[in-house]
Amino acid sequence: MTTQEGTRQMKSPNDSPRIAPLEPPYDPEVAQILKRMMPPEMEPLKLFRTVAHNRYILDKLRSTGAYLLNYGALDPLEREIVIHRTCARCGSEYEWGVHVLAYGQPLGLSEKQIEATVTGSPDDLVWSERQSLLLQLVDELHETATVSDGLWKKLAENWNPSQLIELLAVVGQYHTVSFFTNAVRVEREEGAPAFPARAGTKPEP
């Protein structure tokens, strides 16, 4: 099975959100959480404003995400490969596009690498041996909810125990994010790219 075939497409572009994002003025506690989640002068993402219907979950999403994206032990480029692949395998076009725009491109992922997180395999030539292990990790966790002994041995030769725990946490965090974006049908952010078109199809608008 190719990754494209294995990527879940749970909604059509015409599906409307099941839960509308909150609009200002926000509850003061929600406003404070949203402020902490975004750079100054930037409007909160639709995902955050949707999860904000439950401010307690929003705050936990914020604290975990803040650590993984700002203070984690992983190389940022490697972290983004894991996030991009996880979102692609879960069919979360919303979150994949946000990370392409905000992290993948600025960190130096090439256009071919970005596309390969959706349409390619861990064996693609765009990946180094080390990067290939990251894609294998995401794929095995997605498909089996565990990691085979052979892959774990290779991972442990390249990342220390703290980083291994963090890699698992990143995959888990972005499965959760994908559940949110897919189940409540969060609309794509302006400027964020869509998944690359499948062979023989036209790109979505």
Structural summary, described in words:
It is a single chain. The protein is mostly helical and 205 residues long. It has 2 domains: 24-71, no CATH class; 75-195, AhpD-like (Up-down Bundle). It is 60% helix and 0% strand. Helix 4 crosses helix 10 (161-183), helix 5 (76-90) packs parallel to helix 8 and helix 5 (76-90) runs parallel beside helix 10 (161-183). The longest helix is centred in the last third of the chain and has 23 residues, at 161-183. It is globular. The chain starts with a helix and ends in a 22-residue tail after the last helix.
Concise structural overview:
The protein is mainly α and 205 residues long. It has helices at 3-6, 28-37, 46-51, 55-71, 76-90, 93-107, 111-119, 129-144, 149-156, 161-183.
Furnish the topology, listing elements before pairings:
Layout: H1 3-6, H2 28-37, H3 46-51, H4 55-71, H5 76-90, H6 93-107, H7 111-119, H8 129-144, H9 149-156, H10 161-183
Helix pairs in contact: 2-4, 4-10, 5-6, 5-8, 5-10, 8-9
CATH topology (level 3) name of the largest domain: AhpD-like
Instruction: Average the pLDDT over all residues and give the rounded result.
Output: 92
Strand content: under 5%
Query: CATH homologous superfamily of the largest domain - what is it?
Result: AhpD-like
Name some characteristics of this structure.
mainly alpha, disordered C terminus, 2 domains, 0% strand, 10 helices
